[in-house]
Structure of Polysaccharide deacetylase family protein:
Amino acid sequence: MALQPTAAANGAAPPVNAPAAAPVKPDKPARIPVLNYHSITVDPGNPATITPEKFAEQMRYLSKAGYTPLTLKQFSDMMEGIDKGPDKPILLTFDDGYMDNYEHAMPLLKELGFHATLFMSPGMVDDGYFMSWEQIKEMHEAGWDIQPHGMTHPHLPKLNVKNQKFEIAEAKAQIEQHLGTVADVFCYPYGEWNAATLQLLQELQFKYAFTIEQGLTAPSQHKLKLKRIFANGEESLEQWKSRFEK
Ligand SMILES: [Zn+2]
């Protein structure tokens, strides 16, 4: 004898805990911390720089705490819901292509088995502060994704459409030529963009673009207006952690 009315008897759907219709909890949508670094050097008072020691402390923390720094492919699969991704995903991004990234980030990340993404401006290669193509190739081979940050790191909204297009398309083309990869993830220089920028990125079939708006990154955000978390080199390890851990 049934202990409760059957679905047929009361016209309702079977209870959700019925074995035949085991409830599948929808996976929580991905929320991925995307950390934004620039130069790794000693420059007191400049929050956009971080000392090599402090940077190493942060990377070793991520390793010990069980984070998995993603490739852009893994990031994209999580954003698209194709893959659930690792338990503690994180995307490490480095803007501009400073020589010190090659010196201080690449060897350490290699040692820790971390992936990272570099947003660089091909027009600034080889000018002394920035990496050469040779070094960028080496980073790429070490597991870094290399993506465009404008040809000359311009204030895009100050340019007309033709010049914006050159800045974006030429940077993309040069990276693709030098590395034989697809460059379809953009990072706005100074975090600046306007309607024309968005239109161009769509025309050029960019999948994502990163801003400097603060917060965790989620699939609900506009794909060309993704948030990141600024790694402020002046902050303590605890303050830095609090930006992406609850
Ligand atoms: Zn930049």
The chain has eight helices and ten strands. The radius of gyration is 22 Å. Residues 1-25 have pLDDT under 50 and may be disordered.
